[in-house]
Amino acid sequence: MSRPRGSTLFAYLALSLTWGSSFFFIKISIAGLSPQQLVLGRLVLGAATLNLILLVTRRAWPREWGLIKHLGIVGFLLCVLPLLLFAWAANYIPSGLSSIYNATTPLMTMVIGLALLPEERLSGLRASGIVLGGIGIVMVLGPWHLVESFTTGPAQLACLLGTASYGLAFTHLRRYVTGKYRYDAVTVATVLVTLSAAMMVVVAPFVATGEVHVTGNILLSVLCLGVLASGIAYIWNTRIVQDWGATPASTVTYVSPLVGVALGIVVLDETLSWNQPVGALIVVLGILLSQGVIRASSAARVPAAASRP
User: Fold this and answer.
1) For the segment 40-57, what is each residue's pLDDT rounded down to a tens digit?
2) Share of the chain above pLDDT 90, in %
3) For the purposes of burial, counting CB atoms within 10 Å of the CB of 298, is it exposed (0-12), middle (13-18) or buried (19 or more)?
């Protein structure tokens, strides 16, 4: 039985707003929490939300050790490491700039997939798109500014390392999980987020120490990051992929930075240098070119998976 088209459109808009506003909420949260405390809180909340959904929908928890092992690896690469990197970077760069770097995830995924997946092939079109996307990343990074500031440079590089970690996660997921197990995306997401939360719980006594200053805004931000961005957003993303296909679903990767930049400028009074939105546009063009989306004469290729901030 097909779902109403309007419900899928709502899911798309909700997903764009949720993932686009994630960096805004991260910026607010780090005013009273350390990056480790923030990631611990959002992953525990996300795991609780997804497990509740799993219970209500009567989905079974996987018992295959091979699947759990691979999802543990994916959880570290997709949740723990990049979320820590983006949370740390939020101390030094605007939230809008973080959301721009997050949009490079499809490009990172493509490059890593070419290097690690034997079935991937580098055509002239894909090579051109990767080169163009690389130029866009350099434009956003603004190497001429790194000499002037020794704080924003490492933070921007941390964001790129975070998107590279996303790329590794998606590649590992595709190579060792996709098509090899019978579980749906909701179940897979629940397992990997739960394993990620468990990792943070284990190391929390050693890394998530320090004072905590929680205000109403900080608490609301962590709830949004945990319940929505690390929980329900998975359900919305799954519905969009099922109803519209992977290519239309991936466009949330390009819409999210618009939300992140707008919130940063309007609410947090952030400013961006001219090179950052220009570079972001070049990155998006590079991704579209490498995937064949902007070639009207050919069918659109299935893009790399969208990232979860």
Assistant:
1) 999 999 999 999 999 999
2) 40
3) exposed
- Nearest-10 Cα torsion for 159, 121, 288, 87: -10
The answer to whether 71 and 188 are in contact (CB under 8 A) is yes
Tokens standing for 59? Answer: 């989905």
Domain residue ranges in the chain: 5-290
DSSP state of 150: S
Which ranges of the chain would DSSP assign to H, the alpha helix? Answer: 5-29, 35-56, 65-75, 81-89, 95-102, 105-116, 124-141, 143-146, 152-176, 185-207, 216-223, 233-244, 246-250, 252-266, 275-290
On the CB side of 207, how many CA atoms lie within 13 Å of its CA?
Answer: 14
* Closest among 260, 266, 258, 265 to 25, alpha carbons compared: 260
Positive or negative, the Cα torsion across 217, 163, 208, 150? Answer: negative
pTM more than 0.90 = no
